[in-house]
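Box S1 | Example of a co-folding query
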Amino acid sequence: MALYSEKVMDHFMHPRNVGTIDDADGVGEVGNAKCGDIMKIYLKIENDIIEDVKFETFGCGSAIASSSMATEMIKGKSIHEALELTNKAVAEALDGLPAHKMHCSVLAEEAIKNALKDYFDKNNIPYDHKMYEEMDHEQLHNQVHGE
Ligand code: FES
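Box S1 (continued) | Returned holo structure for FE2/S2 (inorganic) cluster
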């Protein structure tokens, strides 16, 4: 079996929603300390719906494919649904990622959550702070690598 699925290759070669949103309602940036890759997500939100989403990634092919797929999965969805998007769901939608590349999809999930946090903070919208305390990247990284 090829290392990467056709879907991964497709989203890597033709990533959707690449770019920035000038008047974004929420911006989230995360980095992975181990590989040094960075991901940034921009959200345009109206009436609790993700009207538009763009991403920039200084990262590997799996990070590009993951953010492309993740942005497709939350576009037009509610904030609530976007918050529930997991890296596993992103990897599944890509027909899988190699085990040592799962952490790249974690970056996409975290960047989206951080962008939503930025939106909540800017608009004084109450949210569960615990969710972000638990979002420890190293911990997630170790989980997906079984370390
Ligand atoms: Fe760093 Fe993929 S190797 S995000």
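The chain has a mean pLDDT of 90. Residues 32, 35, 37, 59-60, 62-63, 101, 104, 107 surround FE2/S2 (inorganic) cluster (CB under 6 Å).
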